[in-house]
Structures are given as structure tokens and as C-alpha cells.
Write a structure and sequence with these properties.
rod-shaped; two-stranded antiparallel ribbon; ten-stranded mixed β-sheet; about 45% helix; about 300 residues
Amino acid sequence: MSIDISPRLLRYFLAVAEELHFGRAATRLYIAQPSLSHQIRKLEETLGTPLFARSSRRVQLTAAGRTLVREAPKALAALEQAVQLTRLAGSGVATTIRLGYTPVTGFDTLTTLLEALREDHPDLMVDAREFFSAEIPERIRAGELDIGLALAPQPVDGVAGEILRQETVAALLSIRHHLADTPRIPVAALRDETLLLFPRHLAPVYYDGIVAAFREAGFEPEICAFDAPPVYAMLARLAGGREIGLAPASFAEHAATTAAGIVVRDVVDPPILADLSILWRATDPSPALANVLATARHCAEKHKWLRDPGT
């Protein structure tokens, strides 16, 4: 059975409980004493139990009244918090944004965006979760995520997006690899090499773009699919093996500084490009989402994440 009790009634009750005198409580509340007495009786009737033991000489709390003295402030505080969060969420000042990101964007791009959001919107809470690129659009459409950073995502109905960062794909290889001393590796030089990539289904558009670049150079790449997250397991394999990993340059550069025995080299003639997109539900009217998008676009401009068409 639902019970309809207004916050005003609880505040009236607490005033009487503190004063243990209806006259003083009425004065404190700026209402007439008969009106206050009527409101307290209304509350007691709603709860089905007396809250005060009244006599001509004094007013005392009953056991039920003492329980409500303990619980009423909690209820009022929870209601106030709900109101505040609702107002802030409506203004876009504070809420929680569920953000999905890919392993290769979880370093430079994500870190830069989160730092900017902390500065622009300190009350915004970001729940960041890692997924592969192919998962993110579907999770946004299903309402599991509010926004996503995905590498070359496939179009999904109801999910809007735009390119946030464009960069070249770089090579990751062991310091003992025979190409480690080549600062700029032509695509043609990879003809006889084994490329270590995550399976196509995890980021199909990105995977196909890499394959297409090699086919345009006149050969079919030899690819070894690596299906064992996390990313650091792939780096450990590269450090001790003969394969060459290909990844967006920002991730590759980070990996080279954190994984022992790994170097990063540019891939050229032609360079292979990777597009990172920011995605969101097309029908999401959230002001907080609009704030995140504005900050992301500012990051792209400030850090020159979008390539000049002439370069």
C-alpha cells in the first residue's frame, strides 16, 4: 500500500518533535497552532499510529514518533538530493555519462578528453568502460552507453556520429626485428612480413582499411589474428616474436614507452589512415551529452586531431 506524505508534513512533525510544544512549533513555522495540530493529526492518521502522547501539561514522542524522528531527516535529505540532481541534469551541469571506448583509444584520446571534461564540467561524472569498436554502436542504440569512442565504426540506425580524430597507422615491432632500424617503413617493405592484428569482427571497417592499403600496393598481406585481450598481451608477443603490429599512431607511441622491447615506426608510401569517431544516440536530448560533445570538439581543435585535407 502506497502512503502519500508530503515533505511539508514531515517538516511540521520534526518541528513539534524538537520543541515538544505545539505553540512554540507553530510560532517557529509561522502558522496557527490549530492548523499545525490538524496537520499532525492528519500525518498520524495517514501512518495509522500516534506520534505524540499529549496531555494538558506536556507533549511526548511515542515509540513510533521516535522512529520517525530518526528516519524523516533521511527521507527529506534523499528527496532534496533527488531534486538537486534532477535540476542539475536538466541544466547539463551534473549527471553521469556512460562512455564506451576502445582499447587503442584508452590512452591519449580518452585521457585528454577526461581531463578536459574535469576542467569544463567538474560536476559531471563519467562512467568509462572498455569495449571493442564493433560493440560500441549497438550498446549505444540499446541504451547501455550514452556516448562512445570507436575506431572506424560501422553505421547503426539511430546512432549519430562524427570523426573526432584522424591519424596514421604505425608499426609496432621488436627492437630485434630487422626493420627496427628503419624509421619510416614503406608499405611495400611489409610484403613478406606477418602482421599481428585483432580479429576482423572486433573492428571490421578498420581491419578492411588496412587490408585495402596493402592490396593497393599490389600484394595480399599475411595476417595473424590475435584473439587474446588485453592489449598488453599483444605487446608482449610482439616484443618476443617476429610479427609486426599495426595500430593508430597515438596508441603505438604510448605502447612503445610502456612495453619493454618494443619500438614504433611510421608506415609510409602510402600512409594508412585510421579514423576515430565519437558516437551518441541521435534522439538523446541530454544537455550533459551536448556538453560532452562540445568539449570533445574543442579537444579536437586544440590538439589538431583532425587532419588538414591537404596533408
